[in-house]
Amino acid sequence: MADAVQTFRFRVRLTRSAAPGRTDLPPPVLAHVTHAAPAAAVGATGADRGPAAPAPERLGDGGFQECTGLGLEVDVREHAQGGANDGSVRRLGRVRLQPLVLRRGMFLATPDGSADTGLWDWLQDAVGGAAPPVRYDGDIEVLDPTGQRVVARWTFTRGLPLKIIGPSLHAKTGEIAMEELHIAHEGLRLERTT
User: Fold this and answer.
1) Of the candidates 1, 11, 2, which has an alpha carbon nearest to the alpha carbon of residue 149?
2) How many CB atoms lie within 10 A of CB 172?
3) pTM of the predicted model, to two decimals?
4) Which is nearest to 141 in space by CA: 7, 17, 20?
5) CB proximity list for 7: less than 8 A, separation 6 or greater
6) How far apart are CA 183 and CA 85, in angstroms?
7) Of all helices (H) and strands (E), which one includes residue 182?
8) Strand, helix or coil for residue 187
9) Using one digit for the tens of pLDDT, what is the confidence trace for 101-146?
């Protein structure tokens, strides 16, 4: 009998995406159409904040407490078939991707003991006008009980920050401050491990 995969040991790696997306290609230029440069609004492009720091190659440290959204859903299209009134033909349509949701404690990662702001910086740069927004590919790996072998690996491509939620602060309980990151991506795949 096969053993079930335990999911209490896993790690998440976010690495800067090098793969061009379908929308990264410039639009075709038509010979008879002239384009005027758009006027830049102050604050709309982030130009008023000064030059942005380059995005890190890796984001976070892999120490997430919870990961959800590892799923795909396919739309089904129904087609009526002439003369067949007792049923319809079903075909697969587009895949709907769910956002990935990652939760972790806010770590004291800097030498001065302040919280790691990398996830927040990613979202703030994207909404602040960084063009093009920085995308990250990711690996979610489930480890065996010894933590030495990968037993399951999901990969996603071209992730964008969708939402980040800061901690709920309660002085009476003294709970660990948790943050939650939602990532919209362009593809999710469960890969075989060797």
Assistant:
1) 11
2) 5
3) 0.74
4) 7
5) 142
6) 44
7) strand 178-184
8) coil
9) 999 887 666 678 778 888 899 999 888 887 788 999 999 999 888 8
